[in-house]
Amino acid sequence: MASLLSMPRTALPHECMPPAPCPFRQGYAIGPEASGVFATERLILGTSDEGTRVISDVMFGCANESEHSIVNDTRFNGVFGLGYHSEYLVKKLGS
Predict the structure, then answer these.
(1) Which intervals hold domain Xylanase inhibitor N-terminal (predicted)?
(2) What is the pTM of this model?
(3) pLDDT at 25
(4) What are 50-83's pLDDT values in tens digits?
(5) Is the peptide bond before 8 cis (omega within 30 degrees of 0)?
(6) Half-sphere exposure of 7 (CA within 13 A, CB side)
(7) Comparing C-alpha atoms, which of 86, 66, 88 is closest to residue 76?
(8) Please, what's the largest Cα pairwise distance for the chain?
(9) Which of 14, 15, 43, 76 could anchor a disulfide with 55, C-beta 3.0 to 4.6 Å?
């Protein structure tokens, strides 16, 4: 797994400088918020022709606090970048 250290300064809408952790605080439509630090990972996905596709630097958040009981459940680990920012999985799958 990638380091929990910050992403490059240009990768996020707010400022993060290595080696300091890059914090996040994410609100949800139903009201609660989760907070923690960002991390990145390289995903290797199988393709329909039995090949693979590598997607580098997919961003996700490792949560350590939340305001909602479902997020405090030990089965919940954080947030996953499904938005349209260039570092999130949905945007990377489309490029």
Answers:
(1) 11-94
(2) 0.51
(3) 76
(4) 999 998 877 777 777 666 555 556 665 556 666 6
(5) no
(6) 22
(7) 66
(8) 43
(9) 43
Residue type, 48: S
Token representation of residue 71: 């997020």
The two tokens of residue 3 are 């380091």
Reduce the secondary structure of the chain to three states and give it as a string.
CCCCECCCHHHCCCCCCCCCECEEEEECCCCCEEEEEEEEEEEEEECCCCCEEEEEEEEEEEEEEECCHHHHCCCCCEEECCCCCCCCHHHHHHC
Of 35, 36, 26, 32, the closest CA to residue 67 belongs to: 32
